[in-house]
Fold Phosphatidylinositol-glycan biosynthesis class X protein.
Amino acid sequence: MYLILFTVSTCLATCHCLIQEDEKTESHCDLLKQWLESTSVSVEISKKGFHRELITTVDLSPDVLSGVRVLLVHRWPRGVYIDPYQLASLRDQSDWQILLDSAIDLEVPAHKTSGFVTYVYPNHDDPNPRRLKVTIPIHGRYHEPSSVGKTFTSVDIQPPELLLRTEKCTQLNNSEPHTVVDAPCTVHNSSTCPWVKIQHQQEHGPVSLQVPVGDGSLLIPVCSGTLLVTMICCVVLSKYMWKHQIIS
């Protein structure tokens, strides 16, 4: 009899703990969903020329929600690149970590390469961050000369996708209108985890980078002029050497 009562009591206590745990998880997921609605991303470009900086600002909800991790997924166009060697030198100075989806050739022109993806993991000491700012150095690629006399071409950079996740909320299926996607859990890329991808979080559209290009219509005049100057220099140099008997 006592054994039966003890077993029943144990089962009831276990069920009660599981119910409490489910309620806490559900409550945390509800807070996360509310958080999603007031989160936004904006981007801007600083500096001039081929070497720029892309500044991404993430404004998070003012409501307290601890343990939330942030991931920025940049889908870069082929007109720009990121220098992995420069990133390695800035690793100790940056408050973010970055994962590249492929190797990057620094010398290839824009028309002979394709875009790439980066996963940026901001580091923050504050357990309840309100705003995150990430500054990534970017570089413009050389473009094909223009055949219509254009001196600049525009490269559009879209704001990154904002992904959020928390260890305390594992029920991410009902996050509409947001979607659940798989992405690397950490910058080490050892495994993937479910993340909530924020929809309609962008305050602004893409930012444009103006990159100078050559004038293709000047190809023949420039080549002809270069050849003519080279020939004249050769003739003058040959006469000088002959006159001073430099050539035996």
Observations:
- The chain has two domains: 26-212, 214-243.
- Residues 2-37 form the longest helix (36 residues).
